[in-house]
Amino acid sequence: GTVRTSEASATPEIVFAVAADLAAYPQWATGVATVEILETDAEGRAARARFEVDGFIKRITYELVYDYDAPHRISWRAVPGDDIRDMEGYYEFRPRDGGTEIVYALRVQPAFVIPGFLRRQAEKQIVQAALRGLRRRAEEQAGSG
Question: What does each C-alpha distance from 54 to 18, 67, 79, 100 come to in angstroms?
Fold first, then answer.
């Protein structure tokens, strides 16, 4: 898997709220074409969602099941499907000098054949793009609040 960290000037609460708002991902998350919320939890957050993502090779679809520990952590796991055999990851949000240290971990096992080095490369790019997008979006939200 891949683990990366980033720092945002927004508070953990704001970064958590942005990361938990799956329906808005197509507005800021690189490659995310559509998100459909299939189930919500007692707090109204997405417990299960279907993503369509423009991948390296083709557009892929997968469903993720989510777990929340506000405002510290969001974790997810894929429901095995046609495109993704296994995927799990998490965001962690740690207070840091009035802002947030964001940790993102991701492990992806596609259901289609792809050389290992390409898969690792894809994983890295996904993680870096996601962190960049999340940080930018959270800082925008913090600024407009």
Answer: 21, 24, 19, 29
